[in-house]
Amino acid sequence: MAENKLKIFKLGGNVIDNNQELENFLENISKISEDKILIHGGGKIANKYLKKLGIEPRMHEGRRITDEATLEVVTMVYAGLINKKIIASLQKFGCDAVGLSGCDGDVIRTTKRKKESIDFGFVGDPDEKSVNADFLSLLLSSRLTPVINSINHDGQGNLLNTNADTLAYFVANSLAEIYSAELYVCFEKPGVLENVNENDSVIKNINFAKYQRLIEEKKIDEGMLPKLKAAFETLNSKVKKVVICSASDVFDVAEGLTTKGTVIEL
Amino acid sequence: MAENKLKIFKLGGNVIDNNQELENFLENISKISEDKILIHGGGKIANKYLKKLGIEPRMHEGRRITDEATLEVVTMVYAGLINKKIIASLQKFGCDAVGLSGCDGDVIRTTKRKKESIDFGFVGDPDEKSVNADFLSLLLSSRLTPVINSINHDGQGNLLNTNADTLAYFVANSLAEIYSAELYVCFEKPGVLENVNENDSVIKNINFAKYQRLIEEKKIDEGMLPKLKAAFETLNSKVKKVVICSASDVFDVAEGLTTKGTVIEL
């Protein structure tokens, strides 16, 4: 087991939509000196372009149904517009970064999800052990920050869309095999809230028992539910630390200067 | 002077538009075993999306006028849709490739063109000596093929669009300092034609004197003129070989198995 520290940041859509908040977040990320990886989607901007192009965005339980026309648009928005905007900003802040979709350097491989009760279309689930850690390590050891978007491929020439939270958990699990990996899930709220309308109701720690109790008591907001569900279902205990926090607190949280945010106890 | 061979391929828009021709080209590129770099734009697909979004594409002498809305769309199309489609296909053919805009790894830096008689908008001219050859060499020496699109940055957080031919010449010049570099400009025609309607009228060799004579005789097609002009104005003699050829002939031309195409004698 290598002891190299690696901090993985997942950035949520509402922050990406707000230019000033996005800039602040990227400036803070640039100041974090350890090896780091950023993972993002970009739902709202994709929806804006889908609507402009006359395509109705379709979601099921917080996850996008991706037909062929939608796949083209999300590829353009996530891998093109948002990813390059993020990279250009990071460069401005002195952080040398490289944007990656799963196909780049074959960094992540996925398989098209089978039709079940819902046909999600061109959606890819990550293939076990497919993370190309050698390539990511090559970049990291050259002081480059990989910025991964949620467009992946299947190795057969097809692009597939993956939920960005799922992707972040998958990458964190995989890299925890060779790094001392921490995951920071950053979004517009200060953490998991006991009352979704009160920003001072942050739950400091959640373990699996507490997560189940909060669900029974219907205390978890609908938007937060898939994040927590995926965290407890997919993250493994090799990931050293998982925190759900505000994008604006990311520097202090990741540097251990504050106890803000919600710590997930795996 | 290192003697490592490097083949740089520029792929033109009409081939990118045709899925079958694009696949054939990428399959052929995958078979070329030497270090290689692919550079592309993607004009026609960008125009299709611009029109769908209600933005009228504007060109001046074969070069795109890029206002803010157009910049977003070309970033989505070149860096997102086309670049990732190309990378996924190359992976299918066993060629491990990485898509790059100029901001990725700070690989190319550009400066926004000053307004003159024409305001080209968010168009970037490459900064002298800005090619990050260390980063490209890191990828090449790891058996990765960089695939560079024409979206660049200025180091201040701004994205800028660069003509893909200009970019290819610029990258070839820069890398010719450390590689034995050859440039193949690939498009839908079999070379520079004496008569644009006759595919068997390929001019085998053009030097500067012949180029000037052909212009005087108005024998060069309008679409070809900027390519040749830029070649003779910007390419330097360190680039070992420049051939303008059909994308469908690329393997035989690059491997020296045929004399098809037009050799530019610098």
Describe this structure in words.
Two copies of one chain form a homodimer. The first copy, chain A, is of the alpha/beta class and 266 residues long. The first copy, chain A, has a single domain (5-265), classed as Acetylglutamate kinase-like (Carbamate kinase). Chain A has helices at 13-17, 19-31, 43-52, 68-92, 133-141, 164-175, 208-216, 225-234, 250-254; strands at residues 5-11, 35-40, 58-60, 63-65, 97-100, 110-112, 124-126, 145-149, 151-153, 159-161, 180-187, 205-207, 241-246, 262-265. In chain A, strand 3 and strand 4 form a beta hairpin. The two termini of chain A are 20 Å apart. The mean pLDDT of chain A is 94. At the A-B interface, helix 4 and strand 5 of A face helix 4 and strand 5 of B.
